[in-house]
Amino acid sequence: MRRLTTSARAGLFTLAALLVCLLGTWLLFGRDTPALRTDLLAMLPATERNPLAEEAVERLTRASGDRMILLVADRDDEIAKTAAHELGTALGKDPAFASVIAELPPFDPAQLVAPLLPHRFHLLTPTDRAALAAPGFDASAVLRRQLNEPFGVNVGPSLADDPFGWLRHWFDRQPWSQGTLIPEDDLLTAHRDDGSYVMVIATLAGSSYDDGVQRRALAALGRAEDAMHAAHPNARLLRTGAVFYAAAARAGAERDTHVVGIASTVGIALLLLFAFRSPRPLFIAFLSTALGVVGAVVTTILVFGQLHLLTLVFGAALLGEAVDYSIQYLCARANAGNHWQPEDGVRQVRPALMLALATSLLGYALLALLPFPALRQMAVFAIASMCVACASVFWLLPALARAPARAPISAPLVHAARAWQRLASGRRAVVVVGLLVIAAVPGWLRLGHDDDIHLLISPPPSLDAQTAIIRDIAGMGGGSQFWLVEGADAEETLRHEEALTDRLDREHIGWTGMTAMLPSQKRQADNLALLCASQGSTGSPPATGDCGERMRSAMLAAGFKPEAADAYAHAFPGTPLTLADWQAMPAYTPFRYLWLERASIVVPRGQDDVATLKAMADGLPGVSLIDKPASISALFGQYRGQAVLWLGGALVLVGMALAWRYGIRSAWRVLLPPAAGIALSMGTLGYLGEPLTLFHVMALMLVLGVGANYAVFLREGEPHAAHRPGAAYAGVLLSAVTALLSFGLLALSTMPALRHFGITLLFGIGFTALLAPVSAPDTKTSHA
Amino acid sequence: MRRLIALVALLVAFTAQAQSTTQVNDILAHLSTHTQVRADFTQTRENPALAAPQVSHGDLLFVIGHGMLWHTRDPFDDTLVLTSGRTARLTAEGRVERVPDANRGITQVSAMLQGLLAGHADEALRQFDVAADGTLTQWTLRFTPRQARMARVLAGITLRGGEFLDAIEVDLANGERTRIVFANTRDAAPLNPLEAKALGVP
């Protein structure tokens, strides 16, 4: 490398940069898979030790994944139905949707009943099981009651197919019978005090997280909604579905990226123009930063396959740190005046930059260690962008900044820096820092903590409200808690699930699960035996062969025609319902998500007290309550605790790096600004009443990484700028203000996690930059 | 000329429709003046699977806004409490127990009937086309399902009456037929405590 000329190196670097840019363009736009990810689930850490549980969470979330669930509401029933019909027709014509169900398909109860008829003697509801098992069960009394029910309205299986009513009871317990929506005018309708609600379900022609699908579908819905409002001004449209959540997250993140990106770019540009009073440094600084960002995007996509929106927002804020390296180089250039030699400049800033890079990378590497996809991606993004930005200073910038600077660093900036530097250095300053840290102690004591999942996922409240209403009216979807039931095979899984659902039935907790549709083979055999035993009038169960005969005589006695009684008796005992039968029945297709091979999902209905739900699983083999939000919160808390320890560890590591360079006696002074910055930030957060979250602690780690830079820059830069007191610190302040501009803007983010990040960095970097002069050796300030 | 005929036909149809709706409302409004009614009933159920019609007897108590007690005395003794949207049983010990696995058909028809007897036609009109016949003292209301989905199960419901409701006929699409005839219908004396408790009447 040493043999190469400045130009040759810059040429090679440019070539490499161009290739990386081309690669980046292809990665972003040339592939089939979208490069940007908006999926909220993808950012969350895997919380469950059991991979099945993670799969179950995913299944459940996606069960209503690629569908829009819409309710059209109006005070007037007729208008609600007309509006829903029109909305369904309008959406149905749009290619953005694969299918739209507003009007129900022609319905034939016989088609629902027929597939279950061969299995009817194996299927009993818990109530019927209890009734059959009770002493003194009288089959003929049941028949009589069945025949003389008021109004004689029989929906479902016919009287001849089901004289005792067992199959009808079974039918009424199937999950499709559980909603509160009833078919009216071929539309699924619910009536409330405030009017009628009509359901429209639109299935997207693709994934909810696909950019194009999302945009087309939302645009189509927007047009249809406008048309609906024009025709029926009072009609309301309620919506839910993953696509709306994804779109909201995307809109928030895009807004953040734009605000943070544009505002920090403009701010940094103005600042650099003010400091260097020339456009060339501005161009150089931005080129270096832009290369850093391109390198980071390419590396991240290569490592992770996709770039998450959250990373992009964070990346926009990272501009302020990546620009530091070129600022240091440009400051050196401005301070050198006419003696400027580009390669000398590199040699001059290299130790500071390498040390600064090392401390920053240390901070980010710790983030990358967390098994947390979102943070890991941010860390990789940051590491890549820092390395590329730093490399560009060594290899590209010397070629671009051959000529000496036209003007030294802006005088007012240097004067201000000089004034503050005199004030904030020396023994007196150390004492003041000590006092400040003591003053921060009560703030620490006031620090609470918050590990809620809403730090990461905070959908718009109006969307959540609509989802709640739809869940209430349509009975659709469960919360995020459910039981996972596992077994060695399908049969054992079903038996384990029955142990749970029997308990739930006893406790009157509603549920949706497999065993309401498909009981275990053991349970089915029990049912058959129970049915048979109940036909014995004297308490001694008849032989299985006699059961059909006894049912026949009971039916004849009750007044059935012989043909009807014969047909029923002949059908006995039929065959048990199998998993294959269940999978083959179209009516059960919507509920397939409840079954994972050798595991099943049971979703509670109308009960969301976690303690109660957890208690239900106690002592049952293979049953566990999965509560993803709680798991994530617990994980956040655990990481937060660990992160505090890591912060301490990182402090020691950075201290060791500094001791290696400056000696143990001086190292503490260089470490003091970031350490005090962290202590003061925590105190301030405490006084502000901000609860400490994982993201605050993460940000403190960055404060350490970035803040150590400032002390190092100052310490390393000072000897080279001795002819211009204050110039070195002015450079540090410049770096700090650019960082504050970009990271501080994160405090405006819509996502609480990023907001916490931003606020903490705002305080941390601010304090550290102001305290940086403390790092100067004592001798210099003895007479100040 | 053709247009004129069409217009006249439309007008006639409209007035006929309007007249029918007012008549339905008049009949129901008149029925709803009886807020508490007792009657004896005979229910006859015909079904293709039954050798002979199944007959049951009992008595009925109806209270507007609260529901009805359907007391079967013969061929067995049983009291059902039909309130809006739910079916319960009044046990011999005087307890009201929800009927698990209750027949939704019963709940729905009883809810419709309760609405009609209370003078609220709108709920039923959403589901059914109604044809009215006769006078206020001797009338017939025929309810035909408006939706194919329901028509596959239910062919129609016919109510007959004069001062009170006299008979209900439920015809199912598969040929099943249930006729309920009321006799000795009268405005009910005050409820006994058990009845009041079962129906939630204060």
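qc> Confidence is low (pLDDT under 50) at residues 780-784 of chain A.
qc> done
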